[in-house]
Design a protein that fits this description.
- This protein has about 375 residues and is of the alpha/beta class.
- About 40% of the residues lie in helices and about 20% in strands.
- The protein binds 3-isopropylmalic acid (IPM) and manganese (II) ion.
- Manganese (II) ion binds near residues 247 and 251.
Length: about 375
């Protein structure tokens, strides 16, 4: 198969982790005889520096004419004072919009070799296998009006949370369908005791749920869900939620399963899928070579699965990650006391080699 990929390394640790993900992509392509064509483009702060625009038109056009997009991360504190349209994050939000990527899938799985890496006790996290389905194009991130007015010390700011029924219907449908291939449980997370948007959310999710009698649907308030996520994480299967709640809960889920550094994501819904690790640009460790590339590498697995429907290739990537973790290799974020951590590039190389050289038995990840 011909795989035309747009790569957007972006800012911070983005370039480090995407180059390891590409190494793994090439290893899989070599093994399964696919042809990869990679087009690298600018996004985020690095695009602002070079072009004055966090999402140049050329980047959008290239993404739209490729089969899938791999993104590293955007954001850097040095851009914090720029006007909102020039902020690196704006580039990513506009890209999600341009790609019609309303469905953000963020799996958080507790891998057996990483049981010790979580701040939580083993018996709490064992068996955790959550798929967060985050609505990505609505809510506070895109609602209008939004503004800051007045002058200090009397400024005031406004953001708008806005959801329309069809926006909720389509993301709920995605969640129920995905639950059918899993443990058939959907927990919809909202704040219906306070927010109108959440009352609408709960109403619509309940209505859509009636079309899926095989799926057990529960509703939870977001505060209580945050607590359950650290006290009983293994009770969740699919966790369906709106944009902002999903942003917050997915970082938390990352810590629960050992490190946000291992979390991949897929943003789907439009013609071209967008794949990115959940961790962000991590400016504090950028350039040190200590980042964990596993989130980006597992995003390649998601790309094979969701954009190319190449399940065996996807499982090959996941099995290689697991094999390398099983051998005891750890980057700094997941290493435990007494272990010497390896660098980002070594982790990437070991995973790629495990794909190219070893006969990997494909099977379940956990
Ligand atoms: C994420 C990030 C983004 C978000 C930022 C960088 C805009 O935190 O993908 O979770 O808030 O969606
Ligand atoms: Mn986030």
């Amino acid at each position: 198969m011909q795989l035309n990929i747009t790569v957007l390394p972006g800012d911070g640790i983005g370039p480090e982790v995407t180059s390891e993900a590409l190494r793994v992509l090439n290893a899989v392509a070599g093994k399964f005889e696919h042809q990869v064509r990679v087009n690298q483009k600018l996004i985020g702060g690095s695009a602002v520096v070079r072009t004055g625009n966090p999402l140049p038109d050329d980047t959008v056009q290239t993404c739209l004419s490729s089969n899938a997009v791999l993104l590293g991360a955007v954001g850097d504190p040095s851009f914090d004072r720029l006007p909102v349209d020039l902020r690196p994050e704006r580039g990513l939000l506009r890209l999600r919009q341009a790609l019609g990527a309303f469905a953000n899938l963020r799996p958080a799985t507790c891998f057996a070799p990483l049981l010790q890496s979580s701040p939580l006790r083993e018996e709490i996290i064992r068996g955790t296998d959550i798929l967060i389905v985050r609505e990505l194009l609505g809510g506070l991130y895109f609602g209008e009006p939004r503004s800051t007015s007045g002058s200090a010390p009397n400024r005031s700011a406004i953001d708008t949370m806005h959801y329309r029924e069809p926006d909720i219907e389509r993301i709920a449908t995605v969640a129920f369908k995905l639950a059918q291939a899993r443990s058939r449980r959907v927990t919809s997370v909202d704040k219906a005791n306070v927010l109108d948007c959440s009352r609408l959310w709960r109403d619509v999710v309940t209505r859509i749920g009636k079309h899926y009698p095989d799926i057990e649907l529960h509703h939870m308030y977001v505060d209580s869900a945050a607590m359950a996520l650290v006290s009983r994480p293994s009770q969740f299967d699919v966790l369906l939620t709106e944009n902002m709640f999903g942003d917050i809960l997915s970082d938390q889920a990352g810590a629960v399963v050992g490190s946000i550094g291992i979390l991949p994501s897929a943003s789907l819904g439009g013609p071209v899928g967008l794949y990115e690790p959940v961790h962000g640009s991590a400016p504090d460790i950028a350039g040190k070579g200590t980042a964990n590339p596993i989130g980006a590498i597992l995003s390649i697995a998601m790309m094979f699965r969701h954009s190319f429907e190449l399940e065996e290739e996807a499982v090959t990537v996941e099995s290689a990650v697991l094999a390398v973790l099983n051998k005891g290799y750890r980057t700094e974020d997941i290493s435990t006391v007494g272990r010497f951590p390896i660098q980002c590039a070594e982790m990437g190389r070991r995973i790629a080699e495990s794909i190219s050289h070893a006969e990997i038995r494909t099977g379940q990840l956990t």
